[in-house]
Amino acid sequence: MNQSLKIDPYGFREYDARWLYNKDINKEGIIDLGKGLGTQIIQHTKKNNPRVIVGQDYRSYSEEIKIALKAGLISTGCFVEDVGLALSPMVYFAQFKLDADAVAMVTASHNENGWTGVKMGIIKGLTHAPEEMQELKNITLNKKFITGNGKEKKIQNFDKIYKEDLTNKNKITKKIKAVVACGNGTAGIFAPEILRGIGCEVIELDCNLDWTFPKYNPNPEDLKMLHEISKSVKNNNADVGFGFDGDGDRVGVIDDTGNEIFSDKIGLLIARNLSKKHQNSKYVVDVKSTGLYASDDVLLKNNCKTIYWKTGHSHIKRKVFDENALAGFEKSGHFFFNKPLGYGYDDGINSAIQVCHLLNNQNKKMSEILKELPTTFQSPTMAPFCKDNEKYEVVEDLVQKFTKIKEDKIKIDNQEIDNIVTVNGIRFSFEDGSWGLIRASSNKPSLVIVTESPTSEQRKINIFKFIDNILQETGKIGEYDQKI
Question: CATH no. for residue 217?
């Protein structure tokens, strides 16, 4: 065995692979990952030379990681088609457009500098779920590699085809002034051009590529990024603000008054808009999302059904596919539009375009459309540190603890828990529609905490305080990334 090989098993996460480059995985480890993925693709497609679309995000080390990954894929017999600097949705789109057998996108999305990873998939429009990740881990760590004769070719200018596909079918008639923020991530060379192409007036914010991310991570859940967009929207008297993550599969939205709108609320507005034309349709939302979907008048009137499901782009994408839902919405800003609106995968720019259609169709400002929803007080997503090898056990214990709190009718902020959902961690809700969520992060050593109350800001805070006290008692929780 090559003594210098380094590949931390914990990097194989629920639905993608993430490591700190050189600390947790090195170049030899990436080559083995390519061999593992190539072997898996060949076993699933039953082809000796399956065609694999490969692309990379804009980080100082992404190119060298891609080269190592391709070397591994080619050694198994895969025919690699390299689309170059890309967004994850551009790579997913390429699988449909070029009718390829699989995808491998080198990206750490919104993770801090130093992180790398791969988003991969075999079935068109879907990415690896936990079963495929487990299988890939076993093949890679046990070196059960197939050997073959692969090759590679560069696909030139595929970015133009991707941009034209989104631009040509989405023209708007209303002049919408949009702030487009990319946090110096890869979306900077895609989003402004596409949104201008559909007819928006675009004000660019941090759209030049800079892999040091000098201001903040390109992450539409990051409050720093949202505050910057908010300022720019107000200063420029814009109609809407969009913030894209590092690999362009997520978007955050700011209304015309500079208010941050959590993505689950945007999803609900889009679902309402779609439900009028698509009655009896189904929507999938993740457990971090607002409780409003379940009781929404417009959706109920149009006989639409909402399913709360596991957080994670791969889980929601697959559930949308399995349920043949019209769309899926995740609080982190991943939106999925199934046929006839899209190919089922998450594309932050297509999501921003759907918001533009919403504004284009109504003679109202974003803030006015938002006022049509009942008010709720939502926390941001908060992530306290918890070791990768402890986080799932901690959550499992908390499921038991909160189940007992419900059974014993113990009150939290003078309310009893009336419902518990355990498809992903624990989401406990109360009669007034308030709820709290605790789950293990799928791509970082941390937990994820969210609370919401339709009643008051204070109730939202009190539910969080209750959760935090229980977490501190475990002795296994570190610093929060942000806190209310």
Answer: 3.40.120.10
- What confidence category does residue 313 fall into, taking pLDDT thresholds of 50, 70 and 90? confident
Which of 155, 189, 220 is the last residue before a domain boundary? 155
Facing residues of 21 across strands? 25
Specify if 479 maps to a domain: no
Question: How many Å apart are CA 17 and CA 33, to the nearest integer?
Answer: 10
* Alpha-carbon span 283 to 327, nearest angstrom: 5
How distant, in Å, are the alpha carbons of 108, 115, 132, 287 from that of 443? 10, 11, 16, 17
| Torsion angle of C-alpha atoms 37, 39, 40, 44, degrees rounded to 10 | 140
3-state secondary structure of 309: strand
Mean pLDDT is lowest, of 37-41, 99-103, 290-294, for 290-294
How distant, in Å, are the alpha carbons of 221, 224, 479 from that of 482?
11, 11, 9
The verdict on 138 and 86 lying in the same domain is yes
Residues 331, 406 within the same domain: no
Helix spans in 343-390 (H): 348-361, 366-371
Two structure tokens written together for 50: 């399956």
Three-class secondary structure of residue 131 per DSSP: helix
363 plus 434 within the same structural domain: no
Whether residue 312 is found in the same domain as residue 397 = no
Q: Are residues 293 and 361 in the same domain?
A: yes
Report pLDDT for 15: 84
Separation CA 388–CA 446 (nearest Å):
7
Report d(CA 266, CA 290) in Å as an integer. Answer: 11
Same domain, 175 and 186: yes
* Alpha-carbon gap, residue 210 to 207, rounded angstroms: 9
Mapped onto helix, strand or coil, the DSSP state of residue 11 is helix
- Alpha-carbon span 195 to 314, nearest angstrom: 26
pLDDT of 1 strictly over 50:
no
